[in-house]
Amino acid sequence: MDPALARCRPAPASRPPALPLVEPFLQPVPQQPVLPWTVVPEVITDASPLDPDLRQLATALTAALVEVLGGQRSPAQLELWAEPDLLNLLEHLRRARDADGITLRSVRVQAPHDGALEVSAHLRQGQESRAAAVRISRRRGRWVATHLVIALRPGIVHRAGWVNPFGA
Length: 168
What we know:
By secondary structure, the protein is α+β, with helices and mostly antiparallel strands. The chain is 18% helix and 30% strand. Helix 1 (52-70) packs parallel to helix 2 (84-95).
């Protein structure tokens, strides 16, 4: 059938909606024992949601770091917002043109404790996805990007702010 001739119409109201499956159906296999499903696990809710201002700060700072990588922003603009090691890595990657055309697709922000924010970012470079993680810590009453881990090419992970505890 030609797609141009296709028509969309709503489903008739006589059909009932789909029902979600509440418990899994476990079919026992004779060779393997099956544990009984006696306790339904509780849904864990986040007791302390992240402050929207902190979420906005983390998102804006991550976007600025990606703009430095892509060449749309000067690293000097982030001197107060990022550690020197992190800025050096960004400058190196920018000069090497490893991140040309990179864009920020999405971020996920969490706060492991009151003095830190952790951001995981989904980046896009052409038709390929890239991953990045940013650690933002409170230093002397200010929020500063302290760590960056980013994978711009397969098999190569760039790190800034990472201290090897084994000294190797």
